[in-house]
Write a structure and sequence with these properties.
With 484 residues, the chain is of the alpha/beta class. Helix content is 21%, strand content 24%. β21 and β22 form a beta hairpin. The termini are far apart. It holds the Pfam family FMO-like.
Length: 484
Amino acid sequence: MGSNYLNKKKVCIVGGGQSGLVSLKRILESPFLTGTIIEQKDNIGGLWYYNGIKEFSASSRNMGKTLPDPENTTSMYDNLSCNGSYTLMEFLDYKYEEDVETYLAQSKVFEYMQGYAKHFNLWPNIQLNTSVVDIRPENPSAPEGEPGKWIVETHNLKTDTFSTEIYDAVMICVGKNSYPYQSPIEGQDTFQGKIFHTKYYKNSKDFKGKQIVLIGFGPSSADVLLQLSKTAEKVTACHRFPYGYQFGLLPENCRETKTVKLITKDGVVTEDDEVIPCDVIVLCTGYGLKFPFLNESCGVTVIKEKYVPHLYNLTIFTKKPTLAFLNLCYRSAEFIVVEIQARYFVSYLEGKTKLPSYEEMEAVLQAEEAEKVKKGLPYSLWFQIGDFFGIESWAHFWKLAEEIGIMGEYKGAPALEKIYGLLIGRLCGALAVYKQDKVKKINDNTWEIIMAASPLGKAERIVLTLNPDNTLTSTTEEVTEVAE
């Protein structure tokens, strides 16, 4: 066993969230690979690990000079529940129990990930309380496109010691929701109330009776609006109505209007010159991409904190293909996507999947980027596949699964796509009631979805049936009462 272990390729996995865990699981089941998760928190779970405390330990090597620092502050907050169905938040071979809620609480997702690590005996290969502080290629002068080994330096936060190890490959599994992103707004420094990014939001208790403005449109804005509506006097969501979308049905003390062009000492002014007084401004402006532990010699660049060039199939770094990035795609079914990405990279490391030449991969990427430029897309959308909801991302990753020979394992693929499309559409249009929707898997071929009633219509029951030819049949009927 010892000699066999020495012959295996060693993979460093940076981050112990869903991407890191499924990567480690897939690596350890390979006879040719072994791997280690390096996680700076004192537990696995990534974003989903939250015990009510916003701060955690991190290496000073990765931190800036401002407080609070995003490097050691979680983006999680109290009472968060998922904005996607549980059916889209599980891996292939480890499922939630049958009676689980449709929109899972943060604690439930964390329990799932703990169970996953225990079930597949991942803990012996997980190193906690350790920050990765530097990753650099062993041979920085190697030609572009040539695989190579990596020197990884870590900081043990318990012993305050540093160590270095060489790996055959590195997987960056730190996600995309750590570093607040916001373009400055004129007058922002003059505001006399409280202004902060959703990264630093904890709960709605401190905002009782307040008038609040949210700037931005997306999952964070939607969820924080629903929370604040329970305590605030008034909540106004200001955004650009991207592609004409809006939250639509809102709680009674909430409304939405055009985005903010000016911040004054006591409120905001919208693009329509509407003056909105407020006590609090919450910047729901998303997150930027930063990798402070990647040495310049890696050759990785980030354009405007939104786009990393040279990622073939959104995963493999073409310049040095033993480096992979997982979960950078926006608006997708993340648990499903990262498992396909992990298995794709593992298949490449095993030698089963062959990559095109460096020049061919770059040509593909350059053509894709030229198309994005032609469409006038900002860099913030370059990691998003297709329309605003990311519906087309399914076809991209199913194609990747087909390429590595695992598509047959996703027997319910058409139903998963349909559920994703139905529910994400409810977030834009029926925000006030969408988390009352229910999804239930009846059997391997049948799913039931109950769309909650709104003031404009009755509840609906949708039944999805997977046919023998892998097509999907959908039936819809109105229902007057929804059984619990």
